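We both want to read discrete structure tokens more fluently, so let's practise on a single case. Would you supply a protein for us yourself, any chain you care to pick? Would you write everything just below, so we can both look at the same thing?
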Amino acid sequence: MPDTAAPSVLFVCVHNAGRSQMAAAFLTHLAGDRVRVRSAGSAPADSVNPAVVEAMSEAGIDITAEVPKVLTAEAVQASDVVITMGCGDTCPVFPGKRYLDWQLPDPAGQGVDAVRPIRDDIEKRVRALVDEIAPAAG
């Protein structure tokens, strides 16, 4: 499949330090090059939440090199599916895009014990998304 045919997904949360980072990492891990993945925040933090990094490491996914990114209108325009996770009215809306809002607790300030159930919920949602937008061939 040519890269241009791959659907593009943008995950957005406020700080781009927890939920959206986990979702993007799971989607990249599960779908590989079948999906183009972005994540961003409406008010990005300085770094990814260390408890989130630890929880993802436990799931076998290394996100230590990730950094929070600012949400831009260009990122939204370049995406087929925009999944918000508590960014509220700060997310730009463009016609022709599919928007989903995943209600998830914010892991900010939480320890790894509190992050694990959020991680597991995100993984289930991402697996369902992959099955819908980028099913494996065969």
The chain has four helices and four strands. The longest strand covers residues 8-13. The beta strands are 8-13, 36-41, 81-84, 98-101.
